[in-house]
Amino acid sequence: MGGTADQNSGAGPVRSAHVFDVESLQKYCAANVPEITGKIEVQQFKGGQSNPTYLLHAGGKRYVLRRKPPGTLLPSAHAVDREYRIMHALHGTDVPVPRMLCLCEDAAILGTPFYIMECIDGRVLWDADLPGMTPDQRRAHYRELNRAIAALHSVNPAQVGLAEFGKPGNYVERQIARWIKQYRAAETERIEAMENLIEWLPKNIPQNTTNALTHGDYRFDNVIFHPAEPRILAIIDWELSTLGDPIADFVYHCMSYRMPGSPIEKMGDDEKKSLGIPTESEYRRMYCEFTGRSEVPHFDFYMAFGMFRLVGILQGIVKRYLDGNASSANAAESGKRTRPVAEAGWQQALRVINGSR
User: Fold this and answer.
1) Which of 34, 43, 92, 356 could be joined to 351 by an S-S link, Cβ 3.0–4.6 Å?
2) Which residues are CB-contacts of 15 (< 8 A; sequence separation ≥ 6)?
3) How many domains does the chain divide into?
4) How far apart are the C-alpha atoms of 113 and 103, rounded to whole Å?
5) Do 139 and 257 share a structural domain?
6) Is residue 113 a contact partner of residue 81, using CB atoms and an 8 Å limit?
7) How far is the CA of 145 from the CAs of 12, 43, 350, in angstroms?
8) What's the CA gap between 62 and 3, in Å, rounded?
C-alpha cells in the first residue's frame, strides 16, 4: 500500500526476502532525485500484497518506494512502470494521486524496477463499516469514495496522454482470458466454483463499448483520506490500472456489499441506513449522479466477474507465498479466501442465470 502517517505503525524492518542495497539507492538518488537529501533509512510497510512498498526517511522528510518483488513472476504482473505512468499523468486532474519523483527501470540498481513518490499524511480505512464514525461521517466518506472513482472514469485519457494506456474494446473478454491464464499459472488446487466461472463468464459477456481509465483494485484501503476530513488525498496501488470498462471497475469496488465475511454484507438495509452506510442501490445511484449515467447495467454479471478476478489475484498471492516471495506478511491468510470468494462469484453468476436482479 502507500505510505501515510497513520500507517507508520504498519512500517517496520524490511523482510529478508525484500532486502535491497540501500547504498545503491543512495547513489541513485544523489544522481537522479535531487529532492531526496541526507542519509536514507528504510522501513517496509506490512501492506502491499503484490509489490513490496517501503517508507524512506531522508533529510527530515519521508518518501515511499515501491518495487517489483524479486523472484520468478507471473506474466504481465507487478507493473510498477504502469503505476508510475498513470499517477504521473493524473497529477493535476480531479483524481487525487501522490506526486511522483522518479521511475527507475534499471534492475541493476535495486535488483528490480522501482519508483519513488511523495509520502501522503492521512488515514487508510481498512474496514468497510467504518467503525468509530458517526452516521454523517460514514455517509460523507462513502460519498467521497464514490466521487473519486467517478472522477477517474470521467477523465479523457487522450487529454492526459494516456490514449494508448490499454487496448481499445473487448476489455472484459481480454480480462477474463488474462485472469484464467494467471489463475492457471498459480493454481494449487481444483476449485469447482472457479471452474464453473471459467466456463460461464466468456459466454455471457455484456455488450458494452464504454472505455475509460480504470484503477482495477479500488477500495477503501487503497485510498488515503485527509487526517480529519472526508476528503481523499491520494488513490494508491495502481498496478492493475488500464483503459477498460468503467462499470467493471465500479462494480469491483462494490464487492463488500456481497462478499462473505464483509461486515456490510451481513447488514440489512435498515441497519446500513441507521449507521449512515449507503445501501447498494443508493451507492449505485450516487455513482450515476456523479457520472451522468441513468443506471449501472449488468450489475450481477460484473459482480461475478469481479469476484472471479479477485480469485485470480488471491491465487497469485498463494503461489508467491508458497514460492517464498510474497510481499505481505498476511499472504497465507489471503490464500484461505480463494475458495470462498470463488463460491461467492458463482452465486452471482447464478443470479444472472436465474434472472434475478
Assistant:
1) 356
2) 44, 52, 329
3) 2
4) 8
5) yes
6) yes
7) 28, 29, 29
8) 9
Cell 522501482, located at residue: 114
Predicted structure pTM score: 0.88
Q: Does residue 130 belong to any structural domain of this protein? A: no
Residue 219 lies in a domain: yes
39 lies in the same domain as 77 = yes
Sign of the C-alpha dihedral computed for residues 85, 88, 89 and 94 taken in this order: positive
Taking CA atoms, 295 is separated from 26, 78, 222, 332, in Å, by 51, 33, 25, 38
Could you tell me the strand order of the sheet in which 41-45 lies? 11-12, 41-45, 53-58, 61-67, 114-118, 100-104
What are the DSSP calls for 122-190, one per residue?
Answer: SB----TT-TT--HHHHHHHHHHHHHHHHHHHHS-GGGGT-TTSS-SS-HHHHHHHHHHHHHHHH--S-
125 within domain boundaries = no
Domain boundary among 118, 152, 179: 118
Q: Which domain holds residue 194?
A: 135-353
* pLDDT tens per residue across span 41-86: 999 998 655 789 999 999 999 999 999 988 755 455 568 999 999 9
